Amino acid sequence: MSDPAPPPSPKQPDEPGTLAARWDLKQRAGGIAVPIATVVLAFFMGGVVVAATQHSVHKALLAYKAIFEGAGLNWIFHPTTSLLDISAYNLSQTLLQTSTLILTGLAVGFAFRCGMFNIGGQGQYFMGLIVANWIGVSLVGLNSLSHILLALVLATLAGAVWAGIAGVLKATVGAHEVISTIMLNWIAFWFGSWVFGDGGPLQNSRDPVLPISDPVSKGARLPDFWGDQGFQGVHVGVFIALAALVVFWALLNRTTLGYEVKAVGFNPAAAAYGGINVRKNLIRAMAISGAFAGLAGAIDMLGGTTNYQYGQLDIPFSQVGFLGIAVALLGRTTALGTLLGALLFGGLLFGTTHGLNSGAVIQPELASNLTYIIEGLVVLFVGADVLVLWVWNTPRRLLRRRAKPATSTAELPA
Amino acid sequence: MGDHVVDDLVLEMRGIRKEFPGVVANDAVSFDVRRGEVHALLGENGAGKSTLMNILYGLYRPDAGEIRLNGQPVSFTSARDAIRAGIGMVHQHFMLIPVMTVAENVVLGVEPHNGPLLDESGAEQRVSDLSERFGLAADPTALVSDITVGQQQRVEILKALYRGADLLILDEPTAVLTPQEAGELFEIVRSLRADGKSIIFISHKLNEVLEIADRITVLRRGKTIDTVPREGATEASLARAMVGRDVLLRVEKETAQPGDVLLTVQDLQVRDDREIEKVRGVSFEVRAGEIVGIAGVDGNGQTELIDALTGLQRIESGTVSIAGRELSHPDARTALDAGIGHIPEDRQRRGLVLEYSIAENIALHDYAKPPTARFGWLFPSRMVDRARTLIREFDIRGGGPFTRAGGLSGGNQQKLVAAREIARDPKVLIAAQPTRGLDVGAIEYLHRRLVTERDEGRAILLVSLELDEILSLSDRILVMFEGEIVGEHTGEVSEEAIGLEMLGGRERTAA
Q1: B378, A259: Cβ pair inside 8 Å?
Q2: Where are chain B's structural domains?
Q3: Side by side, which strands form the sheet with B340-343?
Q4: What is d(CA B145, CA B96) in angstroms, rounded to the nearest whole number?
Q5: Peptide bond into B371 cis (omega under 30)
Q6: Minimum CA–CA partner of B59 in chain A
Q7: pLDDT tens readout for residues A284-310
Q8: Residue A230: per-residue pLDDT
């Protein structure tokens, strides 16, 4: 790099060390192209799986059409506000699913910006959900707004504390957050299984055989802003998720807290040199990360995607915390990216289960697994974005090779 | 050997061009090496030396141009091709495995074996044969982690020779060495030359190029400026060719006018992260308006001393005072607020957040203070305004406030660090290796700036492994050896005298 006109270094002289720094590097290397290529590749390979198992390319195309309609995306061709319309109903459910995924995606994203990989979104989500149920079921008769706010705040705090434990462990004894959040997931998993199970403190009061909670009292439920009585409507949790996106962006880009978090994420040594307390930031970032996931649990509980109840048997099937990883990675841990990633996975999740569950196109088992196949492929490709870049650059590389005939290596004396 | 051996040229590179997105790194570069010569490749950082050598070593493919080795045109697709063709490269950062022995490292990848087993004694025998032949003293059974940097470098050279290298590329080989070790390296280079090996010596240090090279090729901004024999070349002429203008090689400064004591260090003891005592009872003072230089071989406690002064390492015992006020249990924040400015020795690892913009890096210490922030809310536009001012004042080139620090050249990164530290108006400015890896132009700038800041009345503590830098800048010199200050000098003092103290010579004579 010459002094007066420094060109960008063709080879990074020192490969930045931390996760976040490497991520930043790759982000600049691939731009928007990589996430798009990632999704296209994942869909393509998901299609290959369907085509191969069904011995029909046509069925694969039909499956994707069914997902598209199952997600309610065909609503844009004939918009209506009536939820009696199937596409409008599907879309409303997609939006609910998306809201949760936005929050779990933000959870992963925030920790990532501080150089940590929060795999524990699922556990933090459970803790939020459990606390929201506990507050929502008890304190009956409280003024509705206070009841909702109290439940939201305490559930958010529960998520923050749960993730904060991993942060404290990392900051004090250096326990790797990936390991500790996975462990905390299992603790939350079995804790939830116990509280909703037989004889558990949150088991319902009517039927002692059912391992399920009481429904959240009416006053604590999030009001719908779109929907008819009798249908699952779209509740204000959607706006809470959108507000969380703004908060995420502002925290990272407009506050000294965000400045510290990102500095620690990129380069802890430089942050410490700058006078930033690295340990404090690790704990704080992890807690904020968990807060987003806890909030996700709260809006799912108070907004009632599960009819305001939760059961022991629901726990093993919940995947939103893990999906948050794919959402955040695909969205490159930015606010806008997370929104788009959540929309994609929200649509997929609802679209596969409701567009394909009739068995008309493919078997329902394959249908529900298709989401997870695509999710897995996205995570794999995001992790292996070198691979995606390689595929992306293949046409250019082939062109170059053709332009320049290979010169043979001269035989040389040894 | 081929049929078209031209003269005694081992290597010819003609019209080499290499373009990276937005940059022409090599533009019609021509370079050749004769058998048995030391040919220095001289140029500032980014002049295209590394690109040229990476092309030769098979790591990059040239966009145009021809490479002939022993008269034969060659085209390498990987380093393996280059190695097979008899080219060896010793990188600036060694590529050795610390837990393995010298012999194991040397034979790695082409091990002699007894059936499926490594022939350990055979390997050791071959390595000691090689080291004897070229005067490269190295114990084949020693672990790499236990030997000095200078010895590790010899292992790298042995590795290349073991693989049959006739043409050796040494990439800035003296950057990590003490003056004594550099002297030993030069002896090795001479014995290799006497054995008929050809050596490409990459450097940006004028004096050593003049000492060791037979011919010198100067690159500037990707182009060959000139190839000259050593005879007749001078530091001034080479510097002019490198930079494109006349360069002030000696630092011009008035006699220091020391004022009040601004930094007092009393009986300081510091342990490193592995609890090893690295600073053992160091005491000194730095006054306003003077530059105190600390000379020493790397690893004698300088790093831990600076880290303790700047609050980055816990103080075991002793005190640090700024302008008479003691810093009790300093952390980085209290040290910064007490008036310490710190140009750290590793600007990329510590001095800058490379992913942050210039503006964000300038705010690294004071991001939470008005006007940049108020009540935790950040005002990026104010950060940017401040950056604009400092970019102008410190002549930081290569980008604006929004440019990533990682995209700047080394010299401009260092200017950025210096700008941030000086603009905070510190009482004490600690400059650690302030010109490491920088080119002549940037060194000139930083040296002048340090003298200016001295004259402004700051107390400046300069720590450098470059003895030249210490000698030319310091008003007073302290020599550090094994965690203690073993010598203090004011006024004229010879390089040899300090060099001896740096190696603990005084202790030895006393004992």
Answers
A1: yes
A2: 9-243, 261-510
A3: B340-343, B428-432, B459-463, B291-295, B476-481, B484-490
A4: 9
A5: yes
A6: A11
A7: 999 999 999 999 999 999 987 667 888
A8: 61
Dihedral in degrees, nearest 10, Cα atoms B239, B241, B245, B250: 10
pLDDT tens, residue by residue, A320-350? 998 999 899 888 889 999 999 999 989 888 8
Rg (C-alpha) for chain A, rounded Å, is 24
Smallest CA-to-CA distance from A34 within A348, A396, A331 is with A331
Interchain contact A173–B (C-beta under 8 A): no
> How far is CA A325 from its chain centroid?
5
Q: From residue A9, how far is each of A32, B17, B18, B405 by CA, in Å?
A: 21, 16, 13, 12
| B86-102 pLDDT per residue, tens | 999 998 778 888 888 89
From chain A, the residues in CB contact with B399 under 8 A are: 6
Task: Tell me the residue type at B331.
Answer: D
* pLDDT number for residue A12: 36
- Nearest CA to A320 out of A302, A335, A337, A298 is that of A298
Domains of chain A: 19-388 (1.10.3470)
Query: Residues B102, B140: contact at Cβ < 8 Å?
Result: yes
Question: What is the side-by-side order of every strand in the sheet holding B38-42?
Answer: B87-90, B167-171, B198-203, B38-42, B215-220, B223-229
Answer yes or no: CATH 3.40.80.10 is held by domain B9-243.
no
Q: Is-contact B214 B39, C-beta < 8 A? A: yes
The ipTM, to two decimals, is: 0.81
Q: How many residues does chain B have?
A: 511
Instruction: Answer whether A7 sits within 8 Å of B22, measured CB to CB.
Output: yes
Closest residue to B23, CB basis, from A8, A266, A408:
A8
Average pLDDT of span B107-133: 83
CATH superfamily of B261-510: P-loop containing nucleotide triphosphate hydrolases (3.40.50.300)
